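Please, structure for the following, as tokens.
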Amino acid sequence: MRIEKVADADDARLGDYRNLTDVALRRVLEPAGGLYIAESAKVIERALRAGHVPRSVLVQDKWVDDIAAILGERDVPVYVTDSATAEQITGYAVHRGALAAMHRPELPDPAEVLRGARTVVILEDIVDHTNVGAAFRAAAGLGADAVLVTERCADPLYRRSVRVSMGTVFQVPWTRLPAWPAARRLLDEAGVHVAALALADGATDLHVFAADRPERVALLLGSEGDGLSRAALRAADSVVTIPMAGGVDSLNVAAASSVALWALAHPPR
């Protein structure tokens, strides 16, 4: 690594780290520039273990030794600054000490991601990066083999998604799906049963579905406000609902993914 001290928040070398609170700007800059931002030493380490390549690291003075241990012999510029300057650069207090501008890996073909996967999570048009990150963390922790996201779903490699996932976006194979019904054809070719989590007349209770789950199944979850699209519901092989109490009709989408994955992994006997 190459340590370069930085004292000026306007330093031209730091363009990748500016205005990170502006979601619209980052959506344009990161995919177009082939970059994403990894935040905290733990997340950076998990990204490197997954084979992702850093372009640079921005770190506060007291975290330099931790980053040095993670980067090893990699020839990467490490911009070292104080906490006040880091906040001026990014637009927020960098409590976790380090940020890395990472090159985005090329997304794999959906057929490759599905190959051999027994339990899959499909996220349709979820716009909240926190929910995306939480769903990935649930997928990693509760045994999903893959995550598929639709074209309009929030970016799993956006800084907030990565942070909330605790870096598990690097652990679970994932890619983007084409629009329905092309996505349905891919799932058919892979022999995957699509179970939509939704409120609908005649829906199957989750515990009943889990007791006799298909060998290969994809849990299909929809956006926070409107739920699943009509096209997604038409593409589903079955509709599954989580029984609720207390007058509550549904759970947050990330919570629903956790409950459904746990149920599939622990079917009633």
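The chain has eleven helices and twelve strands. The chain has two domains: 2-103, 110-265.
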